[in-house]
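DM from R.C. (forwarded with permission)

"hey, sorry to bug you on a friday — could you get me a structure for this? deadline for the figure draft is monday and I only need the backbone to look sensible"
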Amino acid sequence: MTSSQSISTALNYFKDRRLITIFFFGVASGFPWILIGSAMSSWLQEEGFSRSSIGLFGLIFVAYSINFLWSPLVDRIKLTVLTNKFGQRRSWILLTQSILIILTYQLSQTSMQQDLSAIALIGFLIALAGATQDIAIDAYRIDLLQDKDSNYMASGSAMATSGWWTGYAGIGAIPFYLVDQAGLSWQQAYLFLALVMLVLSINTLFAKEPATNRSQIQLSIQQQYLHNISLVGASKLLFPILVACIIGLILYANFDYPNWPASFTLLSPLASVSLSISLVLVLLVTLLGKLNTLANNNSANQLQMTDNHKALNKTLAWLLTTMVAPIQEFFSRNGFKLAVSLLLFIFLFKLGEAYLGRMSIVFYKELGFSNSDIATYSKLINWGVTILFSLIGSVFTIRFGIFKGLFIGGIAMSASNLLFALMAMVGPNKALFAFTVIVDGFTSAWGSVAFVALLSVLCNKSFSASQYALMASLGTLGRTMLGSYSGVVVDWLDGNWAIFFVITSIMVIPSLLFLYLIKDSINQMIAANELQNAQENKI
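My reply, with the result:
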C-alpha cells in the first residue's frame, strides 16, 4: 500500500459488487454475539445474577479463541452433498447457520432459573457454531478478494466490520426494545432472533463461491510430507506427540487451568496465559525445526515412492498437511522473529477494549439506564457511527497504510475509554452517554478496519481459513480469557467504575509500543506479500 492514493482513488475500491456479499456475511458473523453477549448479559442481570457470574459466563466465548484448532478442517473437509452444490466455503457457512437457527430456537424454550446449566451448554454450542461460521466467512472474504491488490482487503475489512456491527448492534437493539417496550419475555425475544438468523442464511444461498487451486496445492504438500515421513522411520511418532501437546496446552489454558498449582494463583491469569503461550511456542519451534530438517535431508535421501505406504503414514501426512503446514508456512514466510512479534501484537491490541466491552451492559444498568436507553445509545447510535467510521477508517488505511491506521486507531481507542470513566463520575446523563458511544464507536471502527486488513494480508491464500483463524483467535484469546475477569476486577475495586475504565485505557499502551518497534518489519512484509500475490495472479 502506498501513501500516494487520492481520496477518489480510495473510494473506487468500494465499487466492487462483491463487497455487498461480504457485508451480509459480516452481519451473520456478528449475530451470534447478540445471542451469548449483550442479550444474554441483560437476561442474566435481570434474573439476579452477580457481576462476577455474568463476567465469568463470558468464558463460553472461549470457542472463538481456540477455533484455529479446527479451522484447518474447514479448509480440507468436504461436506459431501453440501460441498458439491454450494462449494467448500458456502457449505460450511450454511451448515453452521443451520445449527445456529436450531440452537437459538432452543434458547427460546428454556428457563433461565430452572435450566441454567442447559442455557450455559446451549450458549457454548452457539459460540462453537458461531466461531466455525467465522472461520468460513473470513476465509471466503480472503479467497474472494485475493485476486486483487491488498487495498481491496482494506475495503473488504470495512464492509465486514460494518456488517458485523449491523448484526451485533443494529439487530442487537431489537430484543431490548421487544423486552422493554413490547413487554415480551427474553424467551420470546430469542424466538424472534431465531427467525432473523433464518433470514440471514438466505445470503449464503445466492453468494458466489470463490475459485481457488487450494486442493491441488494441499495435495502436493501432503505428498511431500508423505515422502518425508518415509525417511524418518520410527521417529515419525514425534509429530503427533508434539501436535497433541500443543493442542492439549491450548485447551488447558482456555478451560481455566484445571488443577493449576496454588503457588501460581496470585499470578493468574496473566502469568498463566503467558506461560501457556511460551510452552506452545517452544513446542512449535521443536516441531518446525524437525520438519525443516526433514525438508533439508530430502534432497540427499531420495527414496522410491510407491503405493505401499502404510495407513499410518498416510494419515499422519494428512494431519500434518491439515494442522501443521499452515503454521509452518506462516513462520517460514515471515521469519520466526517477525512471526512471533506479529502474534504478540495481535494478542495485546484489543485487550483494553475487551475488558470494557464485557462489562459495558452491566455498567449501563448499574448507572441507571433502561433497556430502551441501552438499545438506542449503545446499539443503534453505535451501529451507525461504526458503519460510517469503518468506511472513513478504510479510506485512511488505503491512503496511508495499515501501520498508521493501526497506530492512530489504537491511540484513539485508549483515549475513548476515559469517557466511560467520566460517565461513571457524572451519572446517568444521556447526552454524555450518546457522546461517549459516538466516540467509542468511531475509535473502535477505525482500529478494527486496520486490524482486520492486517490479518487478511498476512494470510497465504492456500491456507486462508487456518491462518486467519490462528491470528484472529489469538486476539480473541486475550479478550476472552483475560477479559472474562473483568467482573472480578470491578468487584475487587468495590464497584469503582471510574478506576476500572482508566485501567482499560492503560491496557492499550503496551500493544502500541510493541507496534512501533516492529513497524518497519510490518511495512516490508506487506510490500513483499503484495509482490508475491501480484506474481501469483499472473500465473
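R.C.: lifesaver. Confidence is low (pLDDT under 50) at residues 265-270, 298-308.
me: no worries. The longest helix spans residues 116-145.
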